[in-house]
Write a structure and sequence with these properties.
The protein is about 75% helix and about 0% strand. With about 375 residues, the chain is mostly helical.
């Protein structure tokens, strides 16, 4: 972030601190709102939204389902390679600049999706939306919350995940399913991109602030020497700062638990992504409509929200490995159920089980890392 000519870093820091400390509530609550909005607006790059476009990609671009699936897999893998770089930029440049730049690039990537004409262009588009939306913007929004909340991280992440599930997972597929017949799939992707450029990018630049310590505050709204008399804090009347144990990358990769959690979370993510990507065709093979496939995301969203919120409150009392094991058991159940989807009520039950898996997985992944 560059400073205007004649403005010293000290003056800029003082101005930022003044803005943060003028708010009537602990600024972490504002961070929570903005980060949650950012998480919801990752939807154009998430599988639950892309799956609604799948049949249009196949029919209008004249390419096979297997090729689209392969391109999506390649795009997801290639896009993930950029995440370590994004993480370093987050550490070096701060959340404000990083989130703003990602929102702009993601918006442009969505605009690009409206112009794809062939398999190569679609593959490039998949790389961009998966890297910038599902990967980078999701990671930055979670890390931003983690900076401002430590002691109450579990419930706060649970609250954020609840809103993401209800509005993102539950709302985005149905919104897209309505927009496509009205405007076409190309214009729909452009409208989603416009929302990122015109709403999220300015919001991130105006309201996101880096670590609370940079502004004379402590995580969770704990009292600090610079807190104003009468200024509201975070959860609880007198929250106590918590010394958080952190590992370097080199230390983490030498621990067996890191690899156990990595493989478990990767299993849930990969299989869940594959299933959601083909959800419309799976329903079609069982004589159920695309509209019903989009509707199945509603119970999925509500159960994801409830599970995410509930597990967020108990994560400090139950070992993460227990929640990880439970999510893998639920994954086994929905993998079995998907072969028996023959009517709408089984589809709804399937959505419930998949939602519980998703809610637990989100809690484990956000808290563990």
């Amino acid at each position: 972030m560059s400073l205007q000519q004649g403005t010293s870093p000290t003056a800029a820091t003082a101005t930022s601190q003044s803005f943060v400390n003028r708010t009537p509530v602990y600024y972490g609550w504002i961070i929570l709102v903005v980060a949650t909005i950012a998480a919801i607006m990752t939807s154009p790059g998430q599988t639950f939204a892309v799956s609604i476009f799948l049949e249009r990609f196949i029919s209008e671009l004249g390419i096979s389902r297997s090729l689209v699936s392969t391109l999506y897999t390649i795009g997801t893998l290639v896009g993930s390679f950029a995440l370590p770089l994004v993480g370093r930029q987050f550490d070096q440049r701060g959340a404000r600049t990083t989130m703003t730049v990602i929102a702009i690039l993601f918006g442009l990537a969505c605009l690009y999706m409206g112009f794809v004409q062939n398999a190569l262009m679609l593959g490039i588009g998949f790389c961009l939306i998966r890297m910038l939306g599902q990967g980078s913007l999701s990671m930055v929004s979670t890390n931003l919350i983690n900076q401002w909340w430590v002691r109450h991280r579990g419930p706060i992440l649970g609250l954020s995940g609840t809103m993401m599930a209800l509005i993102g997972v539950g709302g985005a597929p149905n919104l897209i399913n309505w927009l496509i017949p009205q405007f076409g799939w190309r214009t729909t992707y452009m409208l989603l991109g416009a929302g990122l450029l015109l709403f999220l990018a300015p919001l991130a630049w105006l309201l996101v602030r880096n670590r609370p310590e940079d502004h004379g505050l402590l995580p969770d709204g704990a009292p600090s020497l610079q807190a104003r008399p009468g200024q509201a804090t975070g959860l609880g009347a007198h929250p106590v700062p918590v010394a958080e144990e952190n590992w370097t990358r080199a230390e983490a990769i030498r621990t067996p638990i890191f690899w156990i959690f990595l493989l478990g979370l990767a299993s849930v993510s990969m299989l869940g992504t594959g299933l959601m990507f083909h959800i419309v065709s799976i329903f079609a093979d069982n004589n159920m409509s695309p509209a019903l496939a989009a509707t199945a995301y509603v119970p999925l969203a509500f159960v994801t929200a409830a599970t995410n919120l509930g597990s967020g409150f108990i994560v400090d009392r139950v070992r993460l490995r227990v929640l990880m094991a439970l999510s893998l058991l639920l994954q086994t159940l929905w993998l079995w159920m998907v072969t028996y989807l023959s009517n709408w009520w089984l589809a709804m039950v399937f959505g419930v089980v998949l939602g519980a898996t998703s809610g637990l997985q989100r809690t484990v992944s956000t808290v563990a890392w």
